[in-house]
Amino acid sequence: MKKIFALLLALCMVLSLAACGAKTEAPAATEKPAETKATEAATEAATEAPAEVKDITLKVWGPQEDQVDASSWLPTMCEKFNAEHPEWNITFVYEVCPEGDAGKNVTQDPSAAADVYMFANDQLGTLIQANAIAQLGGKYLDAVVADNSDSMIASVTGSDGGVYGVPFTGNTWFMYYDKSVFTEDDVKSLDTMLEKGKVSFPLTNSWYIAAFFFANGGTTFGESGLDAAAGVDFGGDKGTAVAEYLVNMYNNPNFVVDADGSGMAGLRDGSVNVLFSGTWDAQAAKEALGDNFAAAQLPTITIGGEAKQLCAFAGSKALGVNPNSQNMQAAVALAVYLGSAEAQLAHYEMRGIIPTSLALTSDPTIQADAVALAQANVIANTSKLQPTLPEMNNYWTPAENFGKAIVSGEVTLDNAAEKVEAFNAALNNSGL
Q1: What is the model's pTM?
Q2: Planar angle of CA 406, 209, 199, nearest 5 degrees
Q3: So what's the pLDDT on residue 3?
Q4: Is 319 in contact with 339 (CB distance < 8 Å)?
Q5: What digits encode the pLDDT tens for the residues 27-44?
Q6: φ/ψ (deg, to 5) at 295
Q7: Number of folded domains that form the chain
Q8: 190: containing domain
Q9: pLDDT band for position 270 (50/70/90)?
Q10: Which has the closest alpha carbon to 210: 220, 201, 225?
Q11: What is the per-residue DSSP string for 18-56?
């Protein structure tokens, strides 16, 4: 048993929106919900005297790679957290749930889901709507805000202005390229790259194709990405110009569609000189390019004689807390710890997960990492916040189909305007 001397951690938590779309209005900034007041009162009473050690169980969900064995990152950090909190004697239950599946798995039955889970931020709206993620508050919120950039905080902020997660890595894409083919100046322009080498791009992948529409002024749910009423604006003359650019790019003999791993295969055999992907492909890209490996933020494209900046969707992977947890204080404290600078540095050292912590920006190892630098530059300079609204679910299939229509020849220079308007209408059709 642990020594009985530590104080319970304070908790200020605002529960998220009610389940299944039944929204409630957020309380005024000067007024706290009754459940939050009750929690704060209980916490204050508890901290007046030492508490006995409490035996608790916390279920934690994360990807398989973080929990291969007892020496993996997740159990290592959880046991360290346990050792640093003598007020709890914690039994951890680890279960596999990739970040990309959390929105689906947690919302199936929030009451049976993990106390703490890792999620991709694009699922935030769905999690809030299902009352499956807790809003941060008090000193925990202060700690998370202090250690993250505005863009990372925005990635876990709901449409009500509440912060619902603890970012632990950015989630976006950038360029891997062969520096024996392209110079650092060359990779500033996609058009220059298409003149000098073979360029692969996942044109039929809806996560990537948006970058071209963003370059020419397109928006998804307004400039903030959180205005559901604004919808998606990829149409009009600016959208037509993008469609024409994409048709011309596809017909360029130096362009290769990256699908089903063909881009990486081409990077390995030298038939491709640039790959657009993210941190998950870093090791493979390094092995493929060897001494000619380089990485950079996104280039510009030329539309109407002007250089326009490609902008990737950017978000985060974060830690969420289940508002149904029976051990809320410990769950919130654990989530904040797993997203702390200490835990992020260990995550980087053990698995190469690029940190978001501002406290680690001056770490010499991370500063010297070309992949970390490329991701950081995209998030800071060439990205748009990936919307977290549930309405974003209507985007993915039409965007994928539009890319496929370019590849199949269905979209041409002659019918680009017509096809773009149909595409934009589909993006805003909530019936899809």
Answers
A1: 0.81
A2: 80
A3: 35
A4: yes
A5: 333 344 433 333 343 344
A6: -140, 150
A7: 2
A8: 174-313+380-427
A9: very high
A10: 220
A11: PSTT---PPPPTT---HHHHHHHHHHHHHTTS----EEE
